[in-house]
Structure formats: structure tokens, C-alpha cells
Amino acid sequence: MLLDTVIVVLGIVGLTRGADNLVFGASVLARNAVISPLMIGLAVVAFGTLTPEIFSADVAARQDNPKLAIDNARG
Fold first, then answer.
1. With contact defined as beta carbons under 8 Å apart, do 36 and 30 qualify?
2. Would you give the distance in Å from CA 48 to the centre of its chain?
3. Cα angle vertex 64, ends 63, 69, to 5°?
4. Residue 14 region, left (φ>0) first, then alpha (ψ -120 to 50), else beta?
5. Domain interval for residue 33
6. What's the domain count of the chain?
7. What are phi and psi of 34, to 5 degrees?
8. CA-wise closest residue to 70 among 62, 10, 61
9. Predicted confidence band at 6 (pLDDT cuts at 50, 70, 90)?
10. Chain centroid, CA 24 distance in Å
11. What is the rounded CA–CA span in Å between residue 3 and residue 9?
12. Rounded Cα distance, 22 and 10, in Å
């Protein structure tokens, strides 16, 4: 039980730090490349919503489950 709690807390801390680093890096990129922060924000949001789909398709392909991959692509 204690190990599970520690793992969850470490996961939350890692997720928070990763998100902070992503936002910081995106804002630096926007400033250095003279790109609108709105465009960088939209790209980050698009990538964030696409990532689970990519991983689901990858898992389906690795498990040799084409039906899951097709259903994932459909919607």
C-alpha cells in the first residue's frame, strides 16, 4: 500500500514537472522563433490530444490486433 502511494505521488510530481517544462519550452520557442504564442499553444494542445491515439495504435499493432487499430482510427 505504501509503495503504491509513493508511486502515485512520484507520478503526479513527474507529470507536473513535465508539463511545466513543456510550457516553458514552448514559450521560449515562441519567443525565439517570433511565432505567436497562440500558434505554439495550439500545436501543444494538438500534440497532447493526439499522443494517446498514437500509443493506442502502437499497442494494437504490437499485440497483432488489427480490429483495435481500425476502431481507434475510426473514432
1. yes
2. 4
3. 90
4. alpha
5. 2-74
6. 1
7. 50, 50
8. 61
9. very high
10. 15
11. 10
12. 18
Phi, psi of 7 (to 5 degrees): -65, -45
pLDDT single digits (tens) 7-35:
999 999 999 999 889 888 888 888 898 88
Query: Grid coordinates in use for 30?
Result: 515562441
Enter the pTM of the model: 0.57
What digits encode the pLDDT tens for the residues 27-56? Answer: 888 889 888 888 888 888 888 888 888 888
Query: What ranges in the chain are assigned the alpha helix state H?
Result: 2-33, 37-62, 66-74
pLDDT confidence of residue 10: 97
Which residue has cell 481507434?
72
